[in-house]
């Protein structure tokens, strides 16, 4: 009895190449000539390099060095980022979402219309800014604030470029620009907070709203899931887009909700509970002393 021998390498390659061809054909060809848009590999390499710097190079570099005093640089950087994100947010609002975009299902316009090209350029700028955001991590490392370079921080800043690349490569317009519009608005508020925090102790009284910033970020991810998930259920939304985009964005948004939610609970809920427990223990001790 003879058994048929399959060449699994050829079979896997066939399906892989077929999938890549199907997937790549849905790209926006207007973005082909832009740096880092020709393949996802450069973005993946940069993501791996960033993680390596966070976990290995950064701590090693600062091991025997004193923290750098770079407060002015931090303030300047965050002020610049406020205006860059405000520009992108305003452009997406005036060109798209306040103009004629549908909040439910907006098709992608791949034409050479000036407005469509402008929206595509903002999508690409948003992608590039995800690398600029890494400067935040550099500041933490140079100041030896390694507790700030947490698992949440590393994961968020590692994978955001992949989400932005996906958007700029396949959906630099239409439905996919909602994340850019929403996230840049969040970053305006976030970098405003960072600016005030870096300006010294006398501005601490203006930072009472820190916990609401985290809540704002959580709401953002929920809205991205609800809005982006339409491509999975409404045929007209996903007809010109790779459905993998919806799955990937939904998956990443769920992870971000988990990580930011855990941070919120650990930072703003558990300490309060511990204080209440300690206060209750103290009251019980006082009662025991008085009764004795």
Give a written overview of the molecule.
The structure is a single chain. The protein is an all-alpha fold and 292 residues long. It has one domain (39-269). The protein is 72% helix and 0% strand. The chain is built from eleven helices and no strands. The longest helix is centred in the C-terminal third of the chain and has 49 residues, at 243-291. It is globular. The relative contact order is 0.11.
Q: DSSP strand (E) fraction?
A: under 5%
Task: Supply the number of helical segments.
Answer: 11
Q: What is the radius of gyration computed over CA atoms, rounded to a whole number of angstroms? A: 24 Å
- Give the termini distance in whole angstroms: 92 Å
Mean pLDDT: 85
For the biggest sheet, the summary is:
none
Helix fraction, binned, reads over 70%
Overall tally of structural domains: 1
- The global form is globular
Would you spell out the secondary-structure blueprint of this structure?
Blueprint: H1 8-24, H2 41-61, H3 71-97, H4 114-132, H5 134-142, H6 151-170, H7 178-198, H8 210-228, H9 230-233, H10 235-238, H11 243-291
Helix pairs in contact: 2-5, 2-6, 3-4, 3-7, 4-6, 6-11, 7-8, 8-11
Quick structural overview:
The chain is an all-alpha fold. It has helices at residues 8-24, 41-61, 71-97, 114-132, 134-142, 151-170, 178-198, 210-228, 230-233, 235-238, 243-291.
């Amino acid at each position: 009895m003879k058994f048929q021998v399959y060449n699994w390498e050829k079979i896997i390659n066939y399906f892989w190449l077929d999938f890549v061809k199907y997937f790549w054909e849905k790209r926006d060809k207007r973005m082909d000539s832009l740096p880092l848009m020709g393949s996802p590999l450069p973005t993946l390499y940069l993501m791996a390099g960033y993680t390596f710097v966070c976990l290995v190079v950064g701590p090693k570099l600062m091991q025997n060095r004193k923290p750098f005093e770079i407060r002015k640089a931090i303030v300047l950087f965050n002020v610049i980022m406020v205006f860059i994100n405000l520009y992108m947010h305003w452009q997406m609002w005036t060109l798209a979402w306040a103009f004629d975009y549908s909040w439910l299902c907006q098709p992608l316009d791949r034409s050479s219309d000036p407005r469509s090209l402008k929206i595509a350029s903002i999508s690409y700028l948003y992608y590039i800014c995800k690398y600029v955001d890494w400067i935040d991590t550099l500041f933490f490392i140079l100041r030896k604030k390694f507790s700030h370079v947490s698992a949440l921080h590393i994961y968020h800043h590692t994978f955001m470029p992949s989400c932005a690349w996906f958007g700029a490569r396949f959906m630099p317009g239409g439905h996919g620009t909602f994340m850019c519009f929403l996230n840049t608005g969040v970053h305006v508020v976030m970098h405003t907070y960072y600016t005030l925090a870096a300006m010294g102790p006398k501005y601490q009284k203006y930072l009472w709203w820190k916990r609401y910033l985290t809540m704002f970020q959580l709401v953002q991810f929920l809205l991205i899931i609800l809005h982006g998930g339409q491509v999975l259920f409404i045929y007209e939304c996903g007809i010109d887009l790779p459905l993998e985009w919806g799955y990937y964005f939904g998956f990443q948004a769920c992870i971000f909700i988990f990580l930011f939610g855990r941070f919120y609970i650990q930072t703003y809920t558990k300490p309060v509970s511990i204080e209440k427990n300690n206060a209750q223990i103290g009251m019980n001790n006082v009662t025991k002393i008085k009764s004795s």
